[in-house]
């Protein structure tokens, strides 16, 4: 659970018998019980966007079923549980505005973008200023619509992680703060792998309600393959939302290279 949240860049819910953790597990169990190779990364998010009217494309039947199940889970929540889910998911203004646009009928490729933004952000401002028990129908629907998409992204993170088998590496602190390094042998050649900050992003779209696990300064991460003593070329791969995601990607790449399925 926590690993999938880190891969998707979303805060993990509190441990133990917490309602948000229980709901996340229900979402991930739907993916886990789907037939192997029936879904590809992005399918469930695409299905959620199709159901919201944002996209008009064909999606696989299993992704449609999963998106419908996510909607039902969120629709069954009362106002208290709904606001708790939005808080622990660190729902941002940008995400809420996307949900508001679908509720207001402003979502679609042919509509005036400025009008969409003004109407949606006005509704989000109202959501942020009101306590949940003072939300009206549109406020509640906008939050629900945003959470459909957030949970679909979480489900897709599990599909993405399930497609590769990582080779566990022994990571240690690097030469600079925030760096992590490891060593591996691929086809008889010793390789050095470094996980490091790739870049600092502009000030992030912070959660509507304060969340302790969302840092005010956000970084992206990359992993770098460094050659042995006889080579000079390095290879960078990024960006990833967390250092855990970068380490996971590096370990999956090591597996692929060792089996001859890819070559850098």
Give a structural overview.
The protein has 264 residues and is an alpha+beta fold. 48% of the residues lie in helices and 13% in strands. The chain contains nine helices and five strands. The protein has a five-stranded antiparallel beta sheet with strand order 1-2-3-4-5, with helices on one face. Helix 2 crosses helix 8 and helix 6 crosses helix 7. The radius of gyration is 21 Å and the shape is globular. The model has no long low-confidence stretch (mean pLDDT 87).
- The end-to-end span amounts to 31 Å
Total of helices: 9
- Relative strand content: 5-15%
Largest sheet: 5 strands, antiparallel
What structural class results from the helix and strand content? alpha+beta
Could you tell me the mean pLDDT? 87
Widest sheet: strand ordering: 1-2-3-4-5
> Which percent bin holds the helix content?
40-55%
Q: Radius of gyration in whole Å, from Cα?
A: 21 Å
Order of helices and strands: HHHHHHHHEEEEEH
Count of extended strands: 5
Shape: globular
Describe this structure in a few short sentences.
Helix content is 48%, strand content 13%. The protein has nine helices and five strands; from the N terminus they run H-H-H-H-H-H-H-H-E-E-E-E-E-H. It has helices at residues 2-8, 19-32, 43-52, 61-75, 79-88, 93-103, 113-129, 137-162, 243-258; strands at residues 172-173, 180-186, 189-200, 219-226, 235-240.
């Amino acid at each position: 659970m926590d690993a999938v949240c880190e891969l998707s860049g979303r805060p993990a819910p509190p441990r133990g018998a917490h309602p948000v953790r229980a709901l996340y597990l229900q979402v991930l169990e739907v993916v886990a019980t789907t037939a192997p190779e029936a879904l590809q990364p992005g399918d469930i998010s695409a299905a959620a966007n199709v159901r919201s009217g944002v996209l008009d494309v064909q999606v696989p039947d299993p992704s449609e079923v999963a998106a419908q199940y996510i909607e039902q889970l969120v629709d069954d929540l009362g106002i208290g549980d709904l606001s708790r889910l939005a808080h622990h998911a660190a729902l941002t203004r940008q995400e809420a505005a996307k949900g508001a646009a679908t509720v207001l009928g402003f979502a679609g490729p042919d509509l005036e973008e400025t009008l969409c933004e003004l109407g949606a952000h006005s509704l989000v401002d109202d959501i942020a200023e009101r306590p949940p028990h003072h939300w009206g129908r549109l406020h509640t629907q906008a939050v629900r619509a945003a959470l459909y998409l957030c949970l679909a992204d979480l489900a897709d993170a599990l599909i993405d992680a399930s497609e590769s088998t990582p080779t566990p590496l022994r990571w240690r602190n690097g030469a600079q703060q925030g760096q992590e390094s490891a060593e591996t042998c691929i086809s008889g050649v010793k390789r050095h792998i470094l996980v490091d900050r790739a870049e600092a992003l502009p000030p992030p779209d912070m959660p509507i309600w304060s969340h302790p696990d969302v840092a005010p300064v956000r970084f992206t991460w990359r992993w770098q393959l460094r050659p042995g003593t006889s080579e000079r070329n390095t290879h960078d791969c990024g960006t990833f939302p967390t250092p855990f995601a970068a380490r996971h990607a590096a370990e999956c790449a090591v597996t692929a290279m060792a089996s001859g399925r890819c070559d850098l």
